[in-house]
Design brief:
Helix content is 0%, strand content 42%. By secondary structure, the chain is mainly β. Strand 3 and strand 4 form a beta hairpin. The radius of gyration is 19 Å and the shape is flat.
């Protein structure tokens, strides 16, 4: 035991609400797991190490439903992947991409 807390659990009336997990042993949680009705509902993670949440995992009926990723570091999910429907796993940007400029032929 190194004397550092690597996991904290939060309860209300004896029911688990949240777990904060420090994977890098720096005193800051990289994963936060949220529970409702004793089931995992979502995970927020700092996978980039920037100190901010950049990945969101949502669970429905005990199974992973969708994953969001913050690509540009603004704290908002830019890409979402639907894990429940395997035919719909393409990542979609949160905002539409600007149209590519078109060239006008010389007159």
């Amino acid at each position: 035991f190194d004397g550092k807390v690597d996991e904290r659990s939060f309860f209300k009336d004896g029911v688990l609400l949240r777990k904060e997990i420090d994977l890098t042993f720096d005193g800051k949680p990289e994963l936060i797991k949220y529970y409702s009705d004793r089931k995992l509902q979502r995970i927020e993670a700092d996978r980039s190490g920037r100190g901010a949440v950049d990945t969101w995992e949502y669970y429905e009926s005990g199974s992973l439903d969708r994953i969001g990723t913050d690509v540009d570091g603004d704290g908002v999910g830019d890409r979402w992947e639907n894990k429940r429907d395997a035919s719909n796993t393409a990542e979609e940007p949160a905002e539409p991409e600007p149209a590519a400029p078109t060239e006008t032929p010389p007159s």
